[in-house]
Amino acid sequence: MAHHHTIPDHVSPLARLLALDALVHEKLIKQAVAVALLHTDIATVARVIDVGVGTGAGAFALAEEYSAAHVLGVDLDADMLADVRQRADHQELGDRISTALLDVEAPDFDAGVADLIWSSNVLHEVSDPAIAFRNLFRSLRPGGVLVVMEMDGSPSVLPSAFQPVERALRVAAGADGPRVDWSGPMRAAGFELLETRTAASDQLLPADGAARDYAALELQRLLDHASPALTEQIAAEVRDLVADLSGSHRRLTEVHIRGTRTVWVARRP
Ligand SMILES: C[S@@+](CC[C@H](N)C(=O)[O-])C[C@H]1O[C@@H](n2cnc3c(N)ncnc32)[C@H](O)[C@@H]1O
Question: How far does the centroid of ligand 1 lie from the alpha carbon of residue 218, in Å?
């Protein structure tokens, strides 16, 4: 059973978005974990590292499937790690999920050696991916598996009636910009690429709870990143929709959350 947790008010906007993302995209995360399972033998996976663990979406899903493994979540952000530990204790997983404050780009990165490394929506943020991939390579035993996931652009959140507005917003915010391709950097670090897959999410949901909050945060994030090319008319319309999603008198009764993510699976020979 999924262990949904309520999101406390005091968390940072990123932690809040990640926690909402985990709730809204639970199935997508499960799809990616299923890809990891295809390439690993559960019996030989004793140690998993989640690099850039954030609020733990990957770490908790991995701990559930790899039920005999220890999962180490590493991140640069001590508050995220504290949140992960607190949630692990709360779910009586404190002995199976631990955390370490580490930078995957540091030349002396040392998270020990794992059978499986997972990193979701993190590596596009690092300034020198070549160093990060070399560090990940060193942190896997020979035969160990690396699973990396990235979003293909930002998710869309509005129903079809609002597509012209959403399209204009997405263009102005570069939401569909070129996505990263980690195949080359993975091979350059010594990995054997096993497969690349697309995980997809397409959900028409009542504009309520986590889905509503997620849609409002995503629209606001795009608005914050929009170039001056966005007309004042569209910007005002988007601000209205954000207010509408946050208020009690609704024009929007549904949100349509859809997007794809790429999953790369590689092996240390
Ligand atoms: C967009 S969040 C993704 C979190 C989580 N993996 C998920 O899918 O929900 C990116 C996370 O990577 C962490 N991060 C960014 N650069 C990092 C680095 N160089 N080393 C370790 N963690 C890093 C951030 O602090 C943040 O928690």
Answer: 18
